[in-house]
Design a protein that fits this description.
Helices cover about 60% and strands about 25% of the residues. By secondary structure, the chain is α+β, with helices and mostly antiparallel strands. The chain has one domain (about 1-215): Nuclear Transport Factor 2, Chain: A. A hairpin with a 2-residue loop joins β4 and β5 (about 205-215). The longest helix is centred in the N-terminal third of the chain and has 40 residues, at about 1-40. This is DUF5105 domain-containing protein.
């Protein structure tokens, strides 16, 4: 009987310690999720990625975004004005991705935490790449036709490079401004996201994101 009682006591103590441990960890886990969404809503995807593990499965698709953007801009080599306008548009798009978020549930399994988040956000499934490309081509052509005389005058007075640089500079702000309007017109829908976090030393890191938009 004493042996059974001792085993029962050990079991309850273990359960109690585990519960207390999880209770202590929950504020840290919530803080990671809060900081993650705060970073995204401010357009700071680099800070958002700092909450990822190295091998994260990112359902939002911002993993390595900075590297990809730099590679694309370097390959395009369209100049500083274009690069700045592109980065500004990217920041604008990211910071408008989520209208709201709410942490619905936090559960633990050893050194793994699962967080369920819901809210409203942009449904990028509506993004039609062909329609978008056609729209941007039309906008670009209209702008060029409208300013053709100015470009010709600049070409004749300062040469091809000056005219090209001016055109890219003007188009960068104009086109990316139109692209912001395109983002503004994407409908927001309800979403539910499941985050998996793991303990790395003393820090909680996001290792997996499963993001689902309502139909």
């Amino acid at each position: 009987m004493k042996k059974i009682l001792r085993l029962v006591m050990v079991l309850f103590v273990s359960i109690g310690l585990c519960a207390c441990s999880n209770a202590d960890e929950e504020p840290q886990v919530r803080e990671v999720i809060d900081n993650y969404f705060t970073s995204i809503q401010s357009g700071d995807y680099q800070t958002a990625m700092s909450y990822y593990t190295a091998d994260v499965e990112d359902g939002f698709g911002i993993k390595d975004l900075d590297e990809v953007v730099e590679q694309e801009l370097t390959a395009a080599a369209l100049g500083e004005d274009f690069d700045n306008a592109a980065k500004d548009w990217l920041k604008y798009t990211i910071q408008n991705t989520f209208d709201s978020y709410n942490i619905d549930e936090v559960t633990f399994d050893s050194d793994t935490a699962t967080v369920i988040v819901s809210g409203k956000g942009l449904d990028f499934e509506q993004f039609n790449s062909s329609e978008f490309q056609d729209s941007m081509t039309t906008v670009t052509n209209d702008y060029v036709n409208e300013h053709m005389n100015e470009m010709q005058d600049l070409y004749l007075s300062q040469g091809e490079e000056a005219a090209t640089n001016q055109l890219i500079s003007d188009l960068s702000n104009f086109v990316f401004g139109e692209m912001k309007t395109y983002v503004d017109n994407i409908e927001s829908k309800d979403y539910k996201t499941r985050f998996t976090l793991v303990k790395e030393d003393t820090d909680w890191k996001i290792s997996n994101i499963e993001h689902t938009m309502s139909s």
